[in-house]
Amino acid sequence: MICNALIIISVSLHVTSQCHQQCYLSLEVPSARTGISVLILARCLTDLYLCVCVCVCVCVCVCVCVCVCGWQALMTVNARLRDLYPESDEMFDIVLVTNNHAQVGVRLINSINYYDLTIERFCMTGGKSPIGYLTAYMTDLYLSKDSKKVQEAIEAGIAAATMFTLERENDLSDSQLRVAFDGDAVLFSDESEIIMKTQGLDSFFEHEKQFANKPLAQGPLKCFLEALGKLQRKFYSKDERMDCPIRTYLVTARSAASAGARVLKTMRSWGLEVDEALFLAGAPKGPLLQKIRPHIFFDDQMFHIEGAQKLGTIAAHVPYGIGQKYHRGIALQPSPPGH
Amino acid sequence: MSEIKPAEVKDASGEERDWAAAKVFFDNLKSKRPRPPKSCYAVTIAVSSRTLFDMTMERKIYEDQGLEKYVEYQQQHEDEPLKPGAAFPFVKALMTVNVKLRQLYPDSEELFDIVLMTNNHAQVGVRLINSINHYDLTIERFCMTGGKSPTGYLKAYMTNLYLSKDSEKVQEAIEEGIAAATMFTPDMEIQLSDTQLRVAFDGDAVLFSDESEIIVKQHGLDTFFEHEKANENKPLAQGPLKCFLEALGKLQRKFYAKNERLHCPIRTYLVTARSAASSGARVLKTLRSWGLEIDEAIFLAGAPKGPLLQKIRPHIFFDDQMFHIEGAKELGTIAAHVPYGIGQKYHKGQLIEKTGKTK
């Protein structure tokens, strides 16, 4: 199977008429064995009345406005990969996954053609959850507006995140794909975060110093970073390191001197690299992300997501780890990962 | 899906309370080890790795053998702490001031905050972290940009001063309106105070704009004197380092408020080549109009700055003219060049061709 050049699309929707309800569009496409599939769940307002037990909507005029920047960046990456490796299948592959009714597909196809996106693979599950298909299609990253589906995907071991719509957006690069990751509970497991929340900052610092040489366990998005790294190395081996169209960032609230060494050593033990590492020691992430301008930023804590969004960064929430279960300033019992 | 919406809505507000609670907890994390202050209150000083530590040998490996060998070398010598660099005494002195500020104002966030801003590769970070811990510096904020210029992040951190060995980056920062200077290592080491931070500034084109210097260079000294006398009461425009002096003044006033003026651990000096009688009044009146104070003002009327600086022993001396920097360096003063204004086009009074600066 030859995978076509595909891209990440974040779908933001505008309502052009008064009445609106929501229905879930997810287009799922089988992913090639060697491609990186990005499954997107687009929640949009449609004017179809669907008599499906799960999904009920009312007709509404909808204008599907696609964020083209991320798309162009991925197109650029794929174009350059094809230039350097004409025979290879290793590139981005985008799949649209929806539990929508099949008839909605016509409108989706028309919209996709209108914006000139090359998404050839669809899967319309007509009401059923698409999670089962994700593993079958070797999905590397699943993006959805529905946090329940995202949680299911994470429990199934697939990198996934909940996307949010922005009120305003920064100008993004269309020649370089930029992906920013949080550290704990995104790339790494939430073990350290559990210590911080249950025993306080001092125990956390001591623990990290003591185990500086013991790698952290992996988090839900480690495999996606690995996949990006694999594509990056294809550029490096052709001497394109300075001009690589993929750039990865680690933006963590950790303190460098007290807790930073373990993070860097863990990445080294996995054989993974990030291009830029920013240790914030508690400073707000928003302003720095505004400078970085990633096409997507993954974090597990909602207040970081909100801070990023306020300044125009596209943020995706990873519902994993102890950061999700927090009540009135009191730490809850450490919960099993992914719940 | 709409059937379950009402339940979702109720849940959503509960979830939002949880998220808000998580944020409050995060913001109020306390520890015995001092936490870095919030950028908006603190005086943020960004230093590059080559100014904080002496990395001349490593730099040579990078230039001769390339990036991969350099990273490999750094990883092999990870547990060897790096030797102190030009900005090291300055950073140590800042830490001393912070300790005293925390004693007087335990809950205040108005402190010095030091950020390491380097375009080094992330893996080199381990050696930097180990070195920082070896000298017991509290530098918790890092930006390792892996090759890209870090000047973009300076504004995001609300940087008050940026020190680097790379003059191109410093120039970019100054053009963005951030106080910045290129550091030079002195030729000999002199003993510096470890109880008092001492910062020395040049006047024109450092604290003040270069308007007067333009007159000196283009029309000569007499015109300059006349101009200064005529405009004595008109404040000079501000220069790139005025805001840093302002930030230092703000912290000094915190000590004065607690009756510590005589033992204030921050001391500022103005070391200018201006002549006091002919052109000094305008300088002092300008500072007064800005509400800024300087502890010592030295008018040299052309005498060399080197010997006086040797007596002052500042942790850092800012000047815009390279020959002053060189004079200071020769006698052991840590000097930082501010690449601003017309002084960049001249050397020892002669107009030079602008040469491309190499890294």
Automatic annotation (TrEMBL), chain A:
GO terms for MF: 5'-nucleotidase activity; magnesium ion binding; nucleotide binding
Keyword Signal: yes
Gene Ontology CC terms, in alphabetical order: cytosol
InterPro entries: 5-nucleotidase
One GO term (biological process): adenosine metabolic process
Spans through the membrane: 48-74
Keywords annotated in UniProt: Membrane, Signal, Transmembrane, Transmembrane helix
Protein origin, superkingdom: Eukaryota
Pfam families reported for this sequence: 5-nucleotidase
Residues of the signal peptide: 1-21
PANTHER family: CYTOSOLIC 5'-NUCLEOTIDASE 1 FAMILY MEMBER, CYTOSOLIC 5'-NUCLEOTIDASE 1B
Name used for this protein in its record: 5'-nucleotidase, cytosolic IB
Organism: Paramormyrops kingsleyae
UniProtKB/TrEMBL annotation, chain B:
Cellular component GO terms, alphabetical: cytosol
GO biological process: adenosine metabolic process; nucleotide metabolic process
Single GO molecular function: nucleotide binding
Pfam families hit by this protein: 5-nucleotidase
Name of the protein in question: 5'-nucleotidase, cytosolic IB a
Species of origin: Paramormyrops kingsleyae
